[in-house]
Design a protein that fits this description.
about 20% helix; globular; alpha+beta
Length: about 170
């Protein structure tokens, strides 16, 4: 499937559905070496006068190494009616252990010096602008309560990445 660049402001996307319910792939790396993971935490908005996307990656995730080592990352949105099983798999299995992209039947596509997938109906190419560790000390409530206890029983906290959206592509 070919990619067509569109103005990010022309997108009609509900981030609560697209990210929280349908899920997205966070991918970084070039054509020769890349990794992806499924994410259901993130956001879209405006910051520093630019369209931005946020995503959250746990310290233990292999994809974090690729995001940390790259200037760019992509957020790719696939049709969950077709790809839900593969999206679930990509969130469970580490690329350290196997070629999970190939096993999921996805076709990597080089775009703007990073990677997306031919099967994506929407791809946002993001340039890292900010990253911060979301550790226990940042919770307004005391660590060990509320969200900290629910989401971080294993103490595998997230890094939040803010990326300026440089390009938006839709499937033709």
């Amino acid at each position: 499937m070919a990619l067509k660049e569109v103005d990010v402001k022309s997108l009609d996307i509900n981030p609560f559905t697209a990210i929280g319910d349908d899920w997205m792939l966070v991918t970084a790396g070039d054509a020769a070496s890349h990794n992806t993971m499924t994410a259901s935490w993130g956001g879209l908005g405006v910051l520093w006068g630019a369209p931005v996307a946020t995503c959250y990656i746990r310290q233990s995730r292999y994809t974090k190494e690729f995001v940390d080592g790259s200037d760019l990352f992509t957020l790719s949105f696939l049709d969950p009616a077709v790809w839900r099983r593969q999206l679930s798999y990509l969130g469970r299995v580490s690329g350290r252990d196997e070629d999970k992209i190939k096993a999921a039947g996805l076709t990597p596509v080089a775009v703007d010096g990073t990677t997306t997938f031919a099967e994506a109906r929407l791809t946002l190419v993001c340039r890292k602008a900010y990253a911060t560790y979301l550790g226990p000390e940042g919770f307004v409530a005391q660590p060990g309560t509320a969200d900290d206890a629910r989401w971080y029983q294993d103490h595998d906290y997230h890094t939040m990445y803010i990326g300026k959206i440089e390009h938006a592509y839709v499937a033709e």
